[in-house]
User: Fold these one by one.
Assistant:
Number 1:
Amino acid sequence: MDSNGAPFFENQPMFVLDQQSLNIIDVNSSAIDLYGYSRDEFCAMNLRDFGEIKNRLEIVDGSSSNMGGNDTIWLQKTKDGEQLYIQLTSHVFNYNGRPAKLAVAHDVSNQIARNEEKERAYPKLTTQDLNYPMAEIRWHPDLRIKDWSRKAEELFGWSANEVIDNEQFFGEFIPDDEISVAKRKVNEAVENQKKNYTSEGKIITKTGNMIVCRWYNSLVYDNSGSLMSIRSLVTNISEHKESERLFRTLSEKSLVGVFLVQDGIFKHVNPRFADIFGYSQQEIINNFSPDDLVHPQDRALLKSNIQDRLNGNPESGEYEIKGVTSSGRIIKVSLYGSKILYQGRPAIVGTVLNITKNKEAMRKHRASVETFQDLFDSISDAIYILDRQGQFLEVNRGAEEMFNYDKDFLIGKTPEVLAAPGKVDLVETQKLTQKALEGDPQSFSWWGKRKNGEVFPQEIIMNPGSYFGKDVVITIARDISDRYQAKEELRKNEKMFRQLFQNAPIPITLMDKRQEIREVNQSFYDVFGYDTDEIRGLDIDQLIVPEGHKDEAKKISDTIFNGETVFHTGKRLTRDGDIIDVLIYGVPVVVDGKTVAIFGIYVDITDRKQAEEKIKKSLKEKEVLLAEIHHRVKNNLAVITGLLELQAYNTDSGDATDVLKASQMRVNSIALIHEKLYQNENLSEISFDNYLQQLTDVIVSSMHSAETEVSINIDADPIELTISQAIPCGLILNELITNAHKHAFDDQEQGEINIAIRNEDGTIALAVQDNGRGISEDVSLKDPASLGLKLIRTLSKQLEGESEFCRNGKGTKFNLQFEHDA
């Protein structure tokens, strides 16, 4: 302060440091603003915790400086990680009865970046090892006293023998209302592995007096991070509260650039002052006058203000002028000066702040305000600002469009004008607004009413804020009609699903991802005998799956939980012990690709199973009967064949014998089909390709001739024919092969018959071709003369097929096509 007691610094970051350890004892608000830490965070730190010495040089200032100490440049970081080059100007003084350092922080980042050589011009503060007039206490981790210094005895009245390892002492030493706070601070420091923290609190002396002390605590940990001991330096600050207040008043008014002018010449400037004007300290000190750094237009103003200070004007006199840098650039600066006595003579000490960027920032701020207003109005949600009385101070265009009211109408009104009558509790709305105003953000649903009377749902978000220096509530209102409608639809769908679930005529159970029952419907109770309340939380497989089926049920559950729907027929156990047959549908409930639940659907098919067993039994009996019929038909046809053969032996007529043998062959072809059906598991169809081979073998053996050797080649697809198609096909083949044997190979030693049968997309194509002399052109299926041709024509019509004889070169070819009975 100067001789009149006026503050010396304005808004400059300042620290009070432990002289030996550089632990931070106190800071001013400018330091808090610059670094971003709170006062408590600072007081738990050492100066080296957020910075390191970057460069060091002594400033030889002699008697021309009133700073009384050394300067140091540090590379420091703010709480947000921003790097700062800081010059610390320090002064040793007596703080609360003990030596301490007052360190003033000057941001020299720009100067360091422009010229690193200037960094080396800044001197570094050196610490001094002094004994502190402070009580020293060492604690065990359990807060028992380990060491008790002589100063502690003097301050608190207890001797070391009375307190060391006394488990009860902590409760006698610390007031009851502060014990939990003290322990909590220790625990928080250990949890965060802090090495130092500072605290203040009340202490009870041996005589019963209550004093206020400041504690500087250092924590020692072992390699594993466990607390080993606590060292506390304690000072009585009860009588120094007023001096602390005065100190804070001083520190809160510090600026960045510092100067001292005497006899019209700068006797001292700090590095930041020199950096503002682009000179070195050496260039300015004892060489420059204030006029050298001020624009000619403002020199008269500067001279007048200096003279006022020297004349003892007590006004602080902060004002703005234009400065001129070494490069000729014009800057805006803010000045503050006070009269002091320097070396016994009047001088002006003051601070200077470059506000050029601030002026530019203000210009940009005005532009940003306009931009903000545009943005404010461009938001489709309704935004309005409410004052402490709940009245509209400002609304955006979104609010006008949402409610169809003009801004001029809304300003000064309350939200009541926008509320839907009968659907909004206005008293509750006022309470929520007050809570938001008090700093507690609010979010709730509301019903609004447009100017045309339309009522619609809204989502309201209220946050506290400031509007032109007034505490306000910033409210955002969003029209959620679509969301509300969707929610209503969802609610209806849920209700419909609930009714479907409960009223479904088949048992349904809902299980979670652990296969535990969450709910069952009425049908489940009707079939299995359990309701939801008595089986909720049980494993469904353990409840209704019979022994011997549990492994199978487990596999089914695993498949469903993999996201697959399962259909299964099995047996399940009712509450009464009955085992029933059920169809089981396992349906997974999949959310975001994960199975979160299962629906188990059960259909009681016990009656159907019993009916199926009866049908199977009846069908088996019919199959046995039908097989017996085929067997008897085959045997009866064999008897007929025998009779025909016997009659042929007893007939002297050659024509009659031929007729009897032809009839015998026709009966044999039919009998062979019944034999195949009897031998086949399927009593309604035969494998015609196998039948064809056996049929030709029988015909060849019966038609064997010494004059001609006939070979038959078969190329047949695997074809299943019903008896109604197999018998006509067999008879047709019998006629074709026997006729070829009889008539096609006269005067030939060898003959060949090729038989092919194909299934071409449901159409059966039969082709029989020989290499004989060829059929006469007089032979025609349209007007058949022989019994054999009549049979072929009749049987082709029976098959609903198309047949023909082809004469192409040597031999004869017969083609037959008909639709396959599937």
Note: Residues 253 and 822 are 106 Å apart (CA to CA).
Number 2:
Amino acid sequence: MSSPNVNTQVPPRFLPLVVLLFVGSGCAALVYEVVWFQMVSLIIGSSAISMGVILATFMGGMCLGSLLLAKYVRIREHPLRVYALLEAGIGLLGIVVLVGLPWVGGLYTAIGGPGMGGLFLRALFCALFLLPPTLLMGATLPAISRWVEATPEGVSWMGFFYGGNIAGAVAGTLLAGFYLLRVHDMTTATFVAVGFNIAVAVAGFALARVTPHTPTEEVVQPEAQRLPAGSMPVLIAIGISGMTALAAEVIWTRILSLMFGATVYTFSVILASFLVGLGIGSSAGSFMARHVKDPREALGWCQLFVMAGLAWAAYMLTQAMPYWPVNPELSIRPLFTFQIDLFRSLLAALPATILWGASFPLAIAAIARREKDPGRLVGVVYAANTVGAIVGAILASIILIAAIGTQNGQRLMIAFAAIAALIVLAPAAIEHGKLTFSKRSAVWVVVTLGFGAWFASTVAPVPPLLIAYGRFMAPRQWDHGEIIFWGEGMNSSMAVSELDSRDANGRPIRNYHNAGKVQASSEPQDMRLQRMLGHITTLLPETPGNILVIGCGAGVTAGAVSIDPGVQRLTIAEIEPLVPKFVAEHFGEHNFNVVRNPKTHIQIDDGRHFLLTTDETFDAITSDPFDPWVKGAATLYTEEFFNLAKSKLNDGGVMTVFVQLYESSMATVKSEIATFMKAFPNGVVFANTSFGQGYDVVLMGQKQPGPIDLDRIAARLSQPEYGPVAQSLYEIGIYSVEELFGTFAGDGPQLRPWLADAQINRDRNLRLQYLAGLGLNIYEADDIYRDMIVHRSWPQDLFVGSPERLAAIRDQIAGY
């Protein structure tokens, strides 16, 4: 058997071992990526801007690493030894990030803030910690590429190395998302990744000892660092390919998260599907690089077919899969739901991702020359692809979806794929100041633009019903009312629907939808909860002058807060700009037009990030964020967050939190309540039932525990200026102070036995989002409520007041 045309001193049998090393390297890299994104989001927030900045920094480091390797590492150094040192360095820096990030996070939160200045600091903060390890990650592929020559056979092996790296990335994504972070925490996940780095480094050093490296005389010369003539069109094309790939991934993730439910598991499934396609494509491209006559033309054909792949994905995501008769409630185990989601994700993503994966080795082959430094060639192609990916990720996540929507965003990506194809298939020349094409190029232009226009015309908008009901779109197709507003914002997609049924005042029932489900509504049970949450927040403090509401939604909770005459300033921290601008306007009759209230200040920011960076303190804080199974929401339910909120309360301050019992498991609810009670040991649970069954609850904690003075609150409500508050309570069926606080369902000391097996949600594990992600299709709200109130008894020191009022509330609690 003839040896492949690589470095003549490299036994061919060792090349597959390097592929295995890259599997381990890729696995570690994705574990780090998942962990670091989670760690940084705790400090700078979970908004699209923050995530765009993190992604750009992460990929920017890899881009710089791929370029700097050839410049600063001598080609005579053994590639395997360099690769092993890089892997060891990544492992060391992984530990540094784990230990140092929380500490330096305190520095950021001390000087950071909202607005453009805060955005700049976020970027700088990310760069400080993510740049060093990602620089080393980006240098690994160019380093090992020097072990082979820039020939068709050598380029083929480079592609297989890249494919092995992606295969490892798939494993790392699933390992981190489904096991390490679900069962353990970020520390354990980090040390597992470090273990992979160490194992790869040790194997690399061992392999270097038995495979001497002597580069050919040609590649040692300075000329070997120069790019071959005609490389620029290939680099531009592969850069555009990276841009369309990452932009499409962002857009597809937005749509698929509606279809599957925006859990951490969904994001792992989508990322794994994307990487599977890239891995298959890179392997296919590596094979093609060895056998095709013109890799440059093959690269152009890949970009042509990417247009079709994008159109296919758009069709599946908007016109086919949303209408499939899939009802996740029928699944008896989450595993079966994940299988269906993985199948659907692969079905939509594979055609385009395979083509993007194949484009990378073909681009290397298109500029490869035997006399050139392979590390330099791979580094430049990798950097071009990564720069494009950075642009695509930022463009889609921060600008495109919010500005032109997912439909036009996908059309734009088809247009860019057409441009990438034409750059390499239809070269043009400038003669006498005019752009000229050959006849062959002109034909390519006409054909490509024609097909591109046709493919773009087939892209349909996201069905508003999918935005409204998400994974339950199919069951709700004949029972959904009229969707009167829908929009795609920077961070999420939302809708407002109006039902045929009416409330007690004869107004049509309205629903606010976000994350593919109803988040708030004017249904009696929802209005009762939202107003309870707002009024308990302002009635308990002696002086509720300055209030913070985390999460605007339909604005009903904030509206209940706003009508309290004692409130002088109301701040609403809302992560999505479209919500207060449009959504809350549709609920003006129900939320007392809170957005237009002069005492209201809207702060567009992640609630946690706002609390971390604000100098304000508050008399009360109420939190009504997304469902805990929505990725990122668990950061607003951690012990550290509740302690942070407590530290921002003035003396006598109160914090209230909404906790749903529906679409939730027993373990999830226990985790939420137990975590809150860690910060507020004497916290109180007030229940909101629907038709006598458990529905949701309000958690209340005081900065300085003290009794609830029923007489004082009753006297306040009897004052004329409190008439709107009393009327608001009357509208939800609460006619007295006794009825409001008679919803008592337990306090911290009483519930301690029930919460004994609860898993505490902490920053280091964000356990809640993994628990909640397994229970979003479960409906056992009443079972949870009944199990909880078994431990309820009369709270001896919680209420004070007249004997008559105490007797009345005792009877109310006993009958609730």
Note: Residues 485 and 496 are 5 Å apart (CA to CA).
Number 3:
Amino acid sequence: MVISRIKVAIFTTSRAEFGILYPLIKQMSVKGGIKPLLFVGGAHLVSECGKTINEITSYGINVQDIFDYLLNGDDSFSISKSFGIAVCELAHIFRDYAFDFVCVLGDRFELLAIVNNAIIFKKPIIHISGGEETTGVIDEQVRHMITKAAHLHFVSCKEYAENLMKMGEPAWRIINTGSLNVDNIVKQNRIPKKRLFEELNLDIRKPTILMTYHPGTLEYSISLEQQIMNIFEALELFDLQTVITAPNIEVDRNKIILCIKDVVRTNNNLHYFESLGFQKYHSLIPHCEFVIGNSSSGIVEVPYFKVPTVNIGDRQNGRIRHKSVIDTDYSVKSIRNGIKKALSANFRSSLKGMKFKFGDGHAAERMVEIIRKTDINQEFFRKQLVFK
């Protein structure tokens, strides 16, 4: 007798998101009873973002279909219109493919287009990384909107599970699996330093740092261009080889890229990449003096390596912090002080015994087991608020 497998539609629109989802896709592929259907869109299809769909297929992962929706332009009108196109493109996928669950990760605006279709096509939604906080960016609103639509929540720590319960989600829908980011870090093969630095055209003798800076979409006190220039001015005091990766596709993304490219052209210490890919990214972190910017990876992933993070501004406000995270404001003075602390031998030594908060590298296994045991019945599918 042939036993039908549970089909889970997994959607990815950015390099960082796929890097996190990879261990889950892999675990589903090797574990009996579940079949992942991967749908790829957004920045993965854009040359200016590294066309990272090629990275996905290089791992031997089958792409079920694509959804292409991004317009040229990073202004609010273009992003909003792209969102509308995404809703339409995704409707074809929901019509043409049969699956039991829809799985989305995080808080990107595109996810609302996926969730919108899931609601209309009556597909139960699995949400990964709910309950987190980032009050300095629109992702905060997007994440909580997805929470109220989702039927099953996989969270990275106890505190985030408690946040979901405070939002009226019943405890039985929430599972603290730990973060998929950690699965990747623990289980992937890292590229040896010598080969990695050769591939990235870096000087293996120079102290190296990693920088990623995204638009702070709810920041009004200082211009985006000034934020970037303050970082570079702060770095001028230090002889550091800096690897810079491109920001997410968000409003005003191109302002950041133009500023970065303008400075990179005249500074041999700066190296710009559209995308490193998650294997190179994780392989590089242990060889860095610190990471700098406002990316969630500096809060969630980098602490695993006990490498300092200089976190600038309020994009990541609300997230749980490790001792390794040094928060600064946007001023040159504050950023320089943060860098000095990150380079301090005493501070770096203090991180050796730091306990990591976001899991143990087995999140994907837990998620797959929960999905296999979940019965899609009326109680599961009908969402209700829990009032305390």
Note: Residues 312 and 328 are 5 Å apart (CA to CA).
Number 4:
Amino acid sequence: MISSVNKRPPRHALRNKIPWHILGLLVMLISACTPLFPQPSTSPSPNTPQPTPLPEALITFRVQIPEALQAGETLQISFLDEVTGLALNPTNTTLKADDSTHYSAILPFALHSVLKYRYLLIRNQAVQEHISDGRAVRYRMYRVDGPGLVQDVVSRWTDTDFSGPTGRITGQVTDAKTTQPIPSVLIAAGGAQTFSSADGTYLLDGLPPGTHNLVAYALDGSYRTFQQGAVVAAESTTPAPIVLEPAQNVSVIFTLIVPPDTVPALPIRLAGNLFQLGNTFADLTGGVNTLASRMPALTPQSDGRYYLTLNLPAGTDLRYKYTMGDGLWNAERTSQGGIRVRQLIVLDSNLQLVDQVEAWENGKSAPITFDITVPAHTPPGDNVAVQFNPGFGWTEAIPMLSAGNNRWIYVLSSPLDITGSIRYRFCRNEQCGSADDLQTAGPNSQGHFIRSSLLPQMVVDPVKDWVWLPPKMEPVILPDIPIVARGANFIAGVEFQPGYHPSWKPRMPSALGDVRSLNSKWITLSPTWTFTRNNLPVLEPVPSQDVLWANLVEDIQSARSQGLHVSLFPTTNIPGGSDLWWSSASRDFSWWQVWFERYRTFILHYADVAAKEGVSFLVIGGEWIAPALPGGTLSDGSASGVPEDAEMRWRALISEIRNRYKGTLLWAIPFQSLSNPPAFLDSIDQIYVLWSEKIAKGSDASEEEMKNKAGKQLDEILKPLQAQIGKPVILGIAYPSADGGATGCLPSPNGKCLDLNLLSRPNPDIPTVTLDLQEQVNVYDAMMIAINERDWISGIISRGYYPPAVLQDKSTSIHGKPAQGVVWHWYKGFLGIP
């Protein structure tokens, strides 16, 4: 509920908490770096009336479980805190048995609350519910509109199997006023979750028969939360169209009074359950769901208060807290030291709030000050972050405060009472596990260790060096070869790697600027969906690794604002790799029917994105899709069993894409597949050839040898196809900065060629592969020379670019590597830039 402001919490002397020289530095920082704005006339006074707490309603929860409990077992309903972290601050209530498989509880909640919950089976420890296909239930949802009844069915538990029939719910989400489809709406029922596609359609599959509560929830609150009961029958589809009422935005002014022991200069952020308040709707490391770098910061004022004005949708159930870190670290506490989460039901009129932080810590442990220096060669645009592990895994990184002269500071106050000790490490741009302090490098690092104490502590560990970032990059020396200018229509660009993490969002404008500085005129974004099930296949966005609609649109607009043409190349995340995934699939007729349906939804989603955002190119196809093409084969050469009418299916899908997207359509095809291209290439505008070919017998090959080998392959295989189909050809080049990369096959432990994606971050390093930055330089220069001699090639794209940080690792990315100098030089010449 809303805090009132009647008294301050007990005073704690700041000088007893933080060493004097750090305190002085922080005071200077806040004076020098943070402007003290005059108090606005609209600011509320301490006597501003606060909203009256909303009345409560009794909700009856009735749940059917798959089998009777055993002696000593109990059943609980667990209400979740998405601001602190779904795994970190649940409120659990034991249910009462109605009979052997039906349990219930009657509980009070504030009107208009949106509850997020799941069921737990308590044995020796808590066992979480899972949906029928084995995936854990993230949460169920229920909107409290008055006294109500919720009927749920649990499919299975973590350690049990599901047997029995299932059904599905499907429909389209549309705007009540415009009737237009609404993308990226969270749909939940029966413990399953999904997101609506660009055309508003959704599918929840694998639901046990029974009555389920169907909820549609806008991530940013821009639409009123929808719910209704949905009856699912065995082996049947329940149609459920959803019409959402748009919510009107109102102005909410947050005024914050802080304790006197508040650390100066550390930004105070607002962490909340909405997308715009740092909630990623993803299961992030360490059980958290919010990111500090995506939260809005409050502005300090001369009167010692902090202010923030937000436009929030009326009707929103806002759960929030104030923090000097994220939803867990350095977040406000109650006066008794407990975790604090506030609730505000945003009404239909503008609102002024006065909140007071009672405490930043629980008083049982003194703060730990991290005062570190970093190498002078740290890129000037980078920020330094600290990451903590309280004993149950690394949580997400938190930005530190720059004190100038390569010095960074962070003061950790809470929750130091979790385990009595923590591990910590430092990284660049919140990419811990990838852009690390050399001493604690890699996703599996244990980091440094420190115990909490009743006395303040100071950590002054210097970062002596960064992993994958040498102190100096040697200049690239290229042969003086005349470059044939191709003009403005030549495609010179960069393709981002498909791997994604929500922490990339704040870094994307900078990354796009880096791409533009390479003389690149094109950026290819590679958004993904994930196969979350194989038999039968389910392809859907998973927010922890797939960029959601709103962020993708922001990236497209940011790229365009920096003068880049945008291309979309949608691809998929496949757990365990595509070879294993395809070989383990049943691939019978019904499987293929579902596969084509799922792929159609996926690719039409991005066709709609491309159309709505005016994207110049849309690329379909790719390496992973070969088994689904006409006459498709698996990686071992055996037939995939693709339906005989696959050619007709693909042509029909391409026709559907063109009905939605009027721009240029490309087909991505590996060079190895050019000898047997699909016949439907005649319906594509351009060909995007994915090139990682062998152009050297060993790493000692000269550039001249590599250029000649590449030229022969281009002339003997690609040029005849280009002449036959009469389509422009663009080369997408991906070579690792690794010894032997030019051979086209880095050996893997299984005796096959290594999947180059495994060299990309955040995957762990592969020690058997040797870093060789110069070989990547030589390969790129050889390829550029070969392209320079062939005017029938319409463009070149450098693939695998890692956006959030400069890393001179073994991957195919050229970001911050010597090879980017090669690309800069040749792009400048090809485009005729003075």
Note: Residues 1-16, 26-49 have pLDDT under 50 and may be disordered.
